[in-house]
Amino acid sequence: MEIINNPTHDEIKKAAKALKDGHLVAFPTETVYGLGADATDEKAISRIYSVKGRPTDHPLIVHISSINQLDKWAIDIPDYAIKLAQEFWPGPMTLILKRSDLAKDFITGGQENVGLRVPDQSVALALLSEFEKIGGLGIAAPSANRFGAVSPTTADAVMEELGIFLHTEDSILNGGQCVVGIESTILDCTTNFPTILRPGAVTSEMIEKTTGIKTSSDFNKNRIRSSGLLESHYSPKAKVVIGATAEPGDGFIALANIPTPKGVIRLASPENSEEFANVFYRALRRGDQTGLKQIIVIQPSGEGLAIAIKDRLTKAAAGK
Ligand code: TXA
Ligand code: MG
Fold first, then answer.
1. Where on the phi/psi map is residue 212: left (φ > 0), alpha (ψ -120 to 50), or beta?
2. pTM (2 decimals)?
């Protein structure tokens, strides 16, 4: 397994070819790093599940190069979903749509729906476009971490999570730190109004403004399976506690205007919710590397990205 730093165009072309040959390529997106495989290659997809240690009935997001690829993978696409794709792609939003015949059970976990996204990151877009030039139709990519663990936002974090499980011909494209830092907004678009399954940087206000339709967040867990919806997920080794008084020796993550309690190890001091999302997973990882037992997090208040941070934080805290 090779880490390719600041990949050149030729190196990206080589990675696209490796995907076509059935190997795995981890790559940066604007949200988190993904572990990629050819979305039509059942054997390559089964390796994603074993490398991640993920149950096989959990569906994967198929990454496509542009909105033009949408109707290869999805059918009966509602107008509001087209509007959303036009407005927010490339970007941190995944649409769940009724699947076409191309989206096999090994991608959808046996469900009739498929998750699709155009990522907004130059290496990812170049990889998708080179993959397409050689006949590729989409790259399936879950976050490049072991099942239930914290998503990686740097190539080093991918290496740390998955390095020992990858093969010689697999690779990690290092495109630097992810800009958003938490996973995409997931929207169920299989009914006549959108339902947020996982909050992210594309917020309900943004969705309602674009579609003119009220979004829902009270989804039916039995209808759609989404591992990010499990009560416990995104968890570091350290115990994460929300809003408690930090004791000496604890890790501490809070907005910059909140002072560091005495004897506590400050892991991050973001200025606002955007910065909070950007540094959050890296800060949790640093806590684990330092061997901390407990990390206290003071969550930012408000709407927008604060909602997504709260969601990940609640799940991280449920982990232990
Ligand atoms: O930002 C992201 O979305 C990143 C980057 C790499 O694109 N990907 C990501 O993938 O977070 P993953 O697999 O770690 O999380 C995707 C979530 C999972 O909870 C999965 O169950 C759900 O999306 N999902 C995928 N396809 C689905 C489908 N057809 N129906 C319902 N949920 C789906
Ligand atoms: Mg994940």
1. left
2. 0.96
